[in-house]
Amino acid sequence: MKFNWLAIPVVSCTAPSSAFTIAPQIGAHSAVFAPSQSRLYYANPRASVVNVTEVEVKSKQESATNKQKNEDLYTPMRLPLNWMTWDVVADQLVDSFGYTKQEVEKYTDLDSDKESLLKLYKDMTLARGFENACNQQYMQGKIKGFMHLDNGQESIPAFVSYAIKEDDRKYSYYREHCHALASGVDPGAIMAELCMKEGGTCKGAGGSMHIFDKQRYFQGGWALVAEQLPYSAGAAKSILLDRALGLSDNEKIEKQNAHLLQNDDRISVVFIGDGGSQNGRMAEILNAASKDNLPLLIVNIDNGRAINTFTDDVAKNRYVYQAGKHYGVPGIYVDGANAVDVAKAGKAAADYVRNGNGPAILQVHTYRFMGHSPADPEHERGRKDEKMWARAEQDPISWFEEKYRGTMFTEEELKEARKEVMAKVKDAVKFADKSPMPPLELASKLEYPDPVDTDYNTRSAPEFAEVVNARTISPGQMAAIQEHISELRQKAKQGEISICEAMNLAIHEEMLRDPTTTIHAEDLQAGSSYGIPSMTQQTYGKIRAADEIIDEGHFIGKAIGEAMNGYRPIVELMNCNFGIYGMAEISSAGNTFLQTGGQYNMPLTIMGAGGTSPDQALGAEHSQPLHAYIMGIPGLKIGTAATPDAAYGLAKSMIRDNGPCFLIAPVKLMKETKGVLDLGKCMPLKSAVIHRASDQSVKEGKAVTVLTYLHGVKESLNAIPAIKDEGYDIDIVELRCLKPMDIDTIRESLSRTNKLVILDESTRSGGVGATISASVSEELFDLLDAPIKRLSMDDTPVPYASSMELAVVKRGEDLIEGVVDVASGKY
Predict the structure, then answer these.
(1) Containing H/E element for 335?
(2) Could you check whether 456-675 and 688-824 share the same CATH topology?
(3) Of 54, 67, 320, 754, which residue is most buried, by most CB within 10 angstroms?
(4) How many CB atoms neighbour CB 63 within 10 A?
(5) In this structure, which topology does domain 89-377+388-437 adopt according to CATH?
(6) Band of the pLDDT at 71, cuts 50, 70, 90?
(7) Beta strands of 612-700 (E only): which ranges?
(8) Among residues 43, 54, 47, which one has the least CA distance to residue 15?
């Protein structure tokens, strides 16, 4: 294949006001670049710009003629940035980042720093050699599943090694091997992880797309496109929390009462590809990072492909570095073929963030030499030809060698560097080969960070709690919150506290007990819809109690980033159905402990009002059974609270738990249901409570077990008189934990009644009742004297009109009929 570098004639040469000049001048023309309008044409791969104005092709006929004449020549669909000299990059730093020319000049010290240049070269060749070895291991069947290689983009890990520090938080996507290498993660451990070995970074539980190293703050490796964006924002927020609270990490990466003060220049760095940068999470993270002045550097790896699709075919904004303009976030655009310029510009951008100026964007224009994955058919337009061309013309390693061979380095020095690097790659492969497979039982051990029978009452509060509270909560604020707590406790003693007040009391007690506890919610300052986060921002400030934009996925994601960095975030959803927006993040929260090999706990508590009550009149979207949707997400503990004591005790336990928990309270009973609390006490997270039928009804075989939760508890209690009028009675098993399920309490009741009715607040297909029924049939079948009766919501969406809702949502009347049918043998 020949590569077409022939210049195309210009029609006009009008420079828009946003353009900036490129030096030097070419002939009589002053070269101008305006990313929003320009197209560049070249005479050869290393040439300067010949002309740079967006042109109209003269005619389709002329284009067709030219194509026919040059059918053996290749013109890349996305032209390279060979014109981009350091002067162009420097101008961007001055114009967009506010650097002086003298400040920018300091970054050129790298040009003559032989040791640092050699390190860049080694980092690039290590990345290339490692990925080639990964490809070989994949072809030999040692690496399985999905794998995504980074060949051609080695200037990125070189920049990371040069400009990013070990204690900076690093978040990447599924093509992260080289980012981990550059962050100091052991090559052998990475290779072993890819080969599913116990010696891997995550003990073989993560794989190619999930590399983590807690000691080096390499925090993923995330497979859902763009999900890492809010996580990285949460990690950046955790740095601000450390500074505000006066905390830092000890050697075990646990919070300690120690100021970093002026020495704290940590930042969070997130890598995002071409396709991912078009995701809506990008706008949200720019908004959040700008609003909170987060120390966040967004690195856009711009290889012109979303998987294999040409980015321009699906996206309007190719120039991601400009995406922050509306938010006051500066960006810089650099040529990924020039690793030295990427390192210099990247360090300048990182330093801008380190110096407290807020977020920034670094867009690196690269070409990926490999397909999306080794199994990729690459059928998309132009991909195969582009790959061949890029290997020949846009290799950052070749560019480096051509530039510095004979000037800065001898061929022997470069050869010795390659030899040193390849030895590391070979050692990594050997280590992976020798490492054993993880034991079978490891999977179950990594389900939850805390055992299901944990007694949270024995868990100690941080030693620094009192000191941190004293320096972050004013005397006036402390007096106000203590008065509020006293009022709630008095209500609790009198049996007058509501479910939402009980949750609010639990939150305040835990936020005072542990200052690393934070909270996120919409309308938080006003107390949200039910007062669950009431007075949190007024007491703990915006740093710990954050009002959020109306996108649950965004602030659940930020909470995940906080949870990975030593904090205990609470997310209040107002209405739990809104959590549908955050299903990707909820799923990843459940996966994190396992897929990091147990390195990262996930102390995240999500709570809110949910369920579907009779006569709810909220319509289909507000009546969806989110609790059923999330039942299938591994790693979650899911609780329901039909009473204030359950809401209080479960909330306290979940906030102290080291894994992700979800607490749902009945939307129609939040303020109506009142009760007494066992103050100061946590409740087990694998619990159910029996409201017992009379011994006489059990003896006569006229008792039935009813399993229910949320609004079903009230419906069942209210149905007891009518059921007794029919000559029967019920054991009501209130399921306070849907997962893990308290099968022992269910067994206890069934051993008395031998009959079961499930009053379910989810759909018949795929609902909670279906899961309970299957579990009872599998584990307690011998205790049943009759088939299980399920009273579930129909699979029809819940209508608004009460006349239609009667056909969908089950209630007390249905329970009375179901109990009589089962107890009398009619069913």
Answers:
(1) strand 331-335
(2) yes
(3) 320
(4) 12
(5) Rossmann fold (3.40.50)
(6) low
(7) 637-640, 661-666, 674-675, 688-691
(8) 54
Nearest to 315 by CA among 306, 323, 324: 306
pLDDT confidence of residue 39: 30
Distance between CA atoms of residues 485 and 691, nearest Å: 30
- Which among 235, 238, 185 is positioned nearest to 212, based on CA atoms? 185
217: region left, alpha or beta (phi > 0 left; psi from -120 to 50 alpha): left
Sequence spans of domains, the chain: 89-377+388-437, 456-675, 688-824
Angle at 321 between CA 315 and CA 326, to 5 degrees: 90
For 79, how many CA atoms within 13 A lie in the half-sphere containing its CB? 24
Q: Are strands 737-739 and 637-640 parallel, antiparallel or unpaired?
A: antiparallel
**Residue 163: how many other CB atoms lie within 10 Å:** 24
Six token digits for residue 197: 């070995």
Distance CA 240, CA 295 (A): 8
Residues 6+ apart with CB under 8 A from 309: 275, 380, 381
Contact 267, 289 (CB under 8 A): no
Model confidence pLDDT, tens digit, residues 598-628: 999 999 999 999 998 888 888 888 889 999 9
Rounded distance between C-alpha atoms, residue 447 and residue 768, angstroms: 20
Each residue's pLDDT tens digit, 572-583:
998 999 999 999
If phi > 0 it is left, if psi is from -120 to 50 it is alpha, else beta; for residue 75 that is beta
CA pseudo-torsion sign 772, 775, 780, 786: positive
Q: Is the dihedral of CA 533, 538, 544, 548 positive or negative?
A: positive
The yes or no reply on domain 456-675 and CATH 3.40.50.970 is yes
Q: Which CATH number fits domain 688-824: 3.40.50.1970, 3.40.50.920, 3.40.50.360, 3.20.20.150?
A: 3.40.50.920
